Amino acid sequence: MRHRKAGKKLGRDSSHRRAILRNLVTSLFKHEEISTTHAKAKALRPIAEKMITLAKRGDLHARRQALSYIMDKSVTHKLFDQTKDRFLNRHGGYLRILKTGHRTGDGAPLAIIQLLSANEEKKSGKTTRKGVKGEKKIPKKVPDEKAKPKGKMKVSEDKQEKVEKP
């Protein structure tokens, strides 16, 4: 049983898996968008987000930790100098994974993983409201100009002129 075993194995031994994830993180920060399988993209996300968090911290120890994981020194400098500024006001959720279909050779599900741009904001709260089971959903009433209001209502002068003229 796999109780308390975090992470996906991706069908590889530990050293190969670590090498693949290091290469993927390096390529992601170098190109800001890569295409890979959906499983690899999901395994890559937490590691890449930790690297961005290290960059936001910005001290010497964080830089050395990132340099020990990212394969290219220039990519690490780019992460700490340019990419960090993009995410200063954001608390997590730096990446987006988009499903793109299946690979023709083996049918593996493919995905694009990309860094979010600076002007994109997180959606706050829920966008839809789910009803309780068994409860009828009541649509919002839209005001209708043809519907007659109940009771006396003041009518503007423009509408009175239109009513009187015909």
Question: What is this structure, in a nutshell?
Answer:
The chain has 166 residues and is of the alpha+beta class. It contains 5 helices and 3 strands; from the N terminus they run H-E-H-H-H-E-E-H.
Detailed description of the structure:
With 166 residues, the chain is α+β, with helices and mostly antiparallel strands. Helices cover 42% and strands 12% of the residues. It has 5 helices and 3 strands. The protein has a 3-stranded antiparallel sheet with strand order 1-3-2. A hairpin with a 6-residue loop joins strand 2 and strand 3. It is elongated and about 85 Å long. The chain starts with 13 loop residues before the first helix and ends with a helix.
Topology:
Layout: H1 14-31, E1 33-37, H2 38-57, H3 60-69, H4 73-86, E2 95-102, E3 109-115, H5 157-164
Antiparallel strand pairs: 1-3, 2-3
Helix pairs in contact: 1-2, 2-3, 2-4
Task: Based on the model shown, name its key terms.
single chain, alpha+beta, 3 strands, 42% helix
Q: Describe the largest sheet.
A: 3 strands, antiparallel
**What's the Cα radius of gyration?**
27 Å
Protein structure class:
alpha+beta
Quickly count the helices.
5
Order of helix and strand elements from N to C terminus: HEHHHEEH
Arrangement of strands in the largest sheet: 1-3-2
Q: Please give the number of β-strands.
A: 3
Beta-strand level of the residues, as a percent range? 5-15%
Distance between the termini: 83 Å
What is the mean pLDDT?
A: 84
Rough outline: elongated
The level of helicity is: 40-55%
List low-pLDDT spans.
none
